[in-house]
Amino acid sequence: MDFGAALLFPFQWLVSAIMVGLHNGLSALGMPAASGWTWTLSIIGLVLVIRAALIPVALQQVKTQRRMRLLQPELKKLQDKYKGQTDPLSRQAMAQEQMALYKAHGTNPFAACLPLLIQVPFFFALFTVLSGISTSANSGEGIGAMSHEQVVQFDESSFFGAPLSASLLHGTPEGGNVVAVWILSIVMILAMTAAQFVTQKHIMARSVSAESMAGPFMRQQKMMLYILPIVFGAGGIIFPIGVLIYWTTTNVWTMVQQFVLDPRSPWEAGPEISPGSAP
Predict the structure, then answer these.
(1) Which domain holds residue 65?
(2) Would residue 274 count as lying in a domain?
């Protein structure tokens, strides 16, 4: 086992253990153990467990967004101070003053990425677990906390006719519905990228003013707003259906969460918090 695999193993075991626990619970409630719906609901339940555990991080993210709103007048003054100065020393000085401003007010514009970064190892763990399902099923082995019997069940299960272990790039297992795989994959890729775009657009609208959009940092943010959905959309062709279900569900959760935790119109009148205090 190489270093990367060893690093990912605890996450693989945890992800598969949560799925197996949810699957066993649903089976105990009367759902067929080998049903694709049972395994699909287990994947969705995995998202709910992980995202519920991340709620404190999400609340901190919203606090950061609100602090960023309060900092916009001072950031605008800083941009005006260095307006037209494109030499390396001026750009470095501006960046240092920006970071000092963030530090003084206890905020960090990159904190908005924290929930996504925390999810990355779980996402890759699920990807490796589901990608190895067919191999484990044929070799007579289990994978993570999943027994060989459960691996075979998962490998043979489908959602709307599409095998959960199938993907656009790596094809469909023998007997699988190729058309269903294509339709379901495309629908979920569009749904997850749309949800991600709407979420990022919402965050940007509530974190920066119109005047600050001209800054170099925000130009980079605007580029990422369009680049990330394209990257994840393109990556969706290698994701098994089960992973697409996970990623679509978590992106929809994030979108709804943003509107629930920070539903107000951006740049509404009136102070929210004092810069030095938590909202």
Answers:
(1) 3-261
(2) no
